[in-house]
């Protein structure tokens, strides 16, 4: 059943008309966005939507064209080893997304002859494609009348409706309003206009209500509450963990690396061999190297801190002399480090040790 337009503070057609008129003048030129009148490449839309999750437009913009040139179609990505995709993803973080994209590309080739399916439900059946991404591709690439709800869109809708509770993880509370707003006409532009409004006008801290095309209807603006909404949820505390990483060089100046397991944190990436994560700082040099293979370990002064989503990690580097064998480890030339899919933490550690990367 179609949700009642009465959910919205103005007629949906008036909200759409005002938003699209604003978008026609304000839309940014972005490497993944089709120009007015052009049809979007569905694969490019999928790649961009996955890249833009948890990563800013400024970070994705200079990377997108090269990545798409490397993997121009689902078939090209499906034919590539996962390691190549992880390698090309370096610097974008949240590598789980690269794995999802690779899995989705394989499924598109196997189930859909290499072409993205054009229905919301079939898109949502692809591995690693959540409700938001499926809706975004359905709307932007195939003109389906759905409004995808990401963090930006949820914030705009929360303010439009004066919804003062913190956003839920799924943002499902905004589905009725998004469905009331959706329409098949200019569906791709409507979805992108709403995202653009959240990015450019209805920003988290200082919404520019005076310049907003929805100012005539917005309940948060009318109540003088725009910047306070949506309600803030208490951020969970981020604990700090501690670890020791090993810098081991063989007689040819090559460094020892190890591939991480295929599941879990930084899955499948290459790192310096690292001891187990601990909950407390190391109390002494002896504690630092306890449990590491027997060698003469020399700690490097200072350490490296890296913040993951759920915890921060402080790592001390110890240099092993002479080189000790590490189970599952392999040596790789310093001058060819670009060949390895190194996460940011490993690059920080290498730079801390004076290795150019
Ligand atoms: S009027 Fe202000 S709070 Fe309301 S949608 Fe526009 S920018 Fe956001």
Task: Write structural notes for this entry.
- This protein is of the alpha+beta class.
- It has two domains: 5-228, Endonuclease III, domain 1, CATH 1.10.340.30; 240-352, Alpha-Beta Complex (Nucleoside Triphosphate Pyrophosphohydrolase).
- The chain has 14 helices and seven strands.
- It has helices at residues 12-26, 42-52, 57-70, 74-79, 82-88, 96-112, 120-124, 131-142, 151-161, 175-181, 187-200, 219-222, 285-289, 344-352; strands spanning 240-248, 255-259, 270-271, 296-299, 304-307, 312-321, 329-332.
- Strands 1, 4, 5 and 6 form a four-stranded mixed β-sheet that branches. Strands 3-2-7 form a three-stranded antiparallel β-sheet, with no helix packed on it.
- Helix 2 runs antiparallel to helix 8 (131-142) and helix 9 packs across helix 11.
- The protein starts with 11 loop residues before the first helix and ends in a 5-residue tail after the last helix.
- Residues 156, 159-160, 201-202, 207-209, 212, 214-215, 218, 220-221, 226 line the site of iron/sulfur cluster.
């Amino acid at each position: 059943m179609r949700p009642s337009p009465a959910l919205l503070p103005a007629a949906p057609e008036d909200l759409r008309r005002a938003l699209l008129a604003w978008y026609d003048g304000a839309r940014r030129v972005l490497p993944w966005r089709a120009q007015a009148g052009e049809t979007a490449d569905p694969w490019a839309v999928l790649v961009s939507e996955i890249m833009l999750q948890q990563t800013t437009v400024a970070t994705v913009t200079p990377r997108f064209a090269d990545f798409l040139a490397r993997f121009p179609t689902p078939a090209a990505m499906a034919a590539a080893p996962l390691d190549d995709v992880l390698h090309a993803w370096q610097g974008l973080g949240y590598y789980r997304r690269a794995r999802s994209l690779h899995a989705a590309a394989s499924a598109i080739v196997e189930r859909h002859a290499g072409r993205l399916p054009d229905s919301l439900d079939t898109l949502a059946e692809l591995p690693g494609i959540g409700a938001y991404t499926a809706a975004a591709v359905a709307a932007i690439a195939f003109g389906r009348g759905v409004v995808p709800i990401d963090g930006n869109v949820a914030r705009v809708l929360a303010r439009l409706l004066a919804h003062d509770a913190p956003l839920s993880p799924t943002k499902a509370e905004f589905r009725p309003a998004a469905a009331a707003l959706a329409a098949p006409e200019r569906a791709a532009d409507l979805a992108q206009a709403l995202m653009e409004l959240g990015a450019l006008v209805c920003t988290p801290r200082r919404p520019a209500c005076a310049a907003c095309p929805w100012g005539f209807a917005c309940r948060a603006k009318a109540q003088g509450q725009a910047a306070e909404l949506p309600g803030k949820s208490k951020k969970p505390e981020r604990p700090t963990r501690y670890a020791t990483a090993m810098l081991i060089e063989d007689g040819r100046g090559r460094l020892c690396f190890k591939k991480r397991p295929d599941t879990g944190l930084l899955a499948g990436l290459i790192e310096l061999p690292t001891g187990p994560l601990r909950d407390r700082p190391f109390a002494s040099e002896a504690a630092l190297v306890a449990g590491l293979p027997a060698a003469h370990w020399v700690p490097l002064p200072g350490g490296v801190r890296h913040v993951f989503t759920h915890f921060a990690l402080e790592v001390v580097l110890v240099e092993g002399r002479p080189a000790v064998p590490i189970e599952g480890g392999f040596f790789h030339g310093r001058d060819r480090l670009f060949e390895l899919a190194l996460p940011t933490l490993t690059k920080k550690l290498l730079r801390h040790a004076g290795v150019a990367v």
